[in-house]
Input
Amino acid sequence: MEPEQVTAQPSRNVWVLAECREGELLEVTLEMLGDARQLADKLQGQVEVLLLGNQVESLVPRLGQYGADRVYLAEHPLLERYLSDLYLPVIADLVRQHSPGIVILPATANGQDLASRLAARTGAPLVSDCVIFKLGSAGELEAVCPGFGDKVYVRILLTGSLQIVTMRPGAAGVEKPKKARTPEVVKIEPGLSPGQSRTRLMEYLPGDPRLIDLVEADRIVSGGRGVGGPEGFKILEQLADLLGAAVGGTRVAVDNRWIPFERQIGQTGKTVAPKLYLAIGISGSSHHIMGAKGSETIVAINSDPNAPIFKTAQLKVCADLHEVLPILVKKLEGLTGKTQG
Ligand SMILES: Cc1cc2nc3c(=O)[nH]c(=O)nc-3n(C[C@H](O)[C@H](O)[C@H](O)COP(=O)(O)OP(=O)(O)OC[C@H]3O[C@@H](n4cnc5c(N)ncnc54)[C@H](O)[C@@H]3O)c2cc1C
Output
């Protein structure tokens, strides 16, 4: 299909695609809003949010608190969960009608899928998985994104009347603007029919939280050399299961093949920003902390009172992990009613 040309006057408005799961906004939506607000203020434009879903209007005030001036709200039972055949026409129509200058989507599985389709549909440039946005001297968007497994960073300048980017979750952190807004709500009648989608979502099977991408995890149980070996990681897995957390670790744990490389956190691993980061038997080297310092709360369990991790952690447990973890697991089993065998 030939791309549809977006021909209206160049716009200063910055759009954000809100992503929700189970009726809640994903944190990355608030992160995107922070960057969108800064860009729009510099461009003297507006921050406008696309909110698609089923009965999601209650999320509008939160979008206002984080900087949205206007929300395009499309509610429909068929929009309950993401399906590209249904989301794309609604969003592409809005883009055609209102001609935003920049559209920011989350670099999640759904956001990446939608961004590439939107770029193909509109003929706009797309840069994926960005971690920093700036404006060039002529007001064009400059995006920084990691390449070669995060070993290098590249700066890319986008041109054209519409520029599309996706933003890596956890890259920016959430910043609440000083001024909350009451966004104008523009309700959209999506006019969708079940036959419009060539795919149908049959069932939503929640994955094992221990294996979800660390970048998207709200809670992480992370282990280092102190864990002692792959056997030692078994109790971390149990703990993670009880907490609904993902499992990660240090380079030492990866180099010793106790956990796979995609579970490494730090300078040469993943950069994470969970609400809870449980660092177990981890010394807290700068190379490791670099990847975990965006965590809201760090809890460290370490037997060495001088371990550097205690300088970063908010909750410090100076003890042998082999004594503490079984107690913790038992307590959580009691609280959750789940048993770990
Ligand atoms: C260029 C470069 C890039 C790097 N990138 C990364 C990276 O991305 N990620 C990363 O993690 N590292 C990275 N490293 C390695 C990093 O410098 C550290 O060597 C590594 O993070 C240390 O891992 P650790 O904390 O598991 O081990 P250690 O530093 O050996 O710490 C083990 C800790 O466990 C504690 N401990 C031992 N037994 C117990 C017990 N029974 N109970 C409680 N606590 C106990 C000890 O007191 C100690 O503090 C990089 C290094 C370089 C040079």
The chain has a mean pLDDT of 92. Residues 14-196 form a domain with the Rossmann fold fold (CATH 3.40.50.620). Residues 224-226, 250-252, 264, 266-269, 281-283, 285, 287-288, 291, 301-304, 307, 320-322 surround flavin-adenine dinucleotide (CB under 6 Å). Residues 27-43 form the longest helix (17 residues).
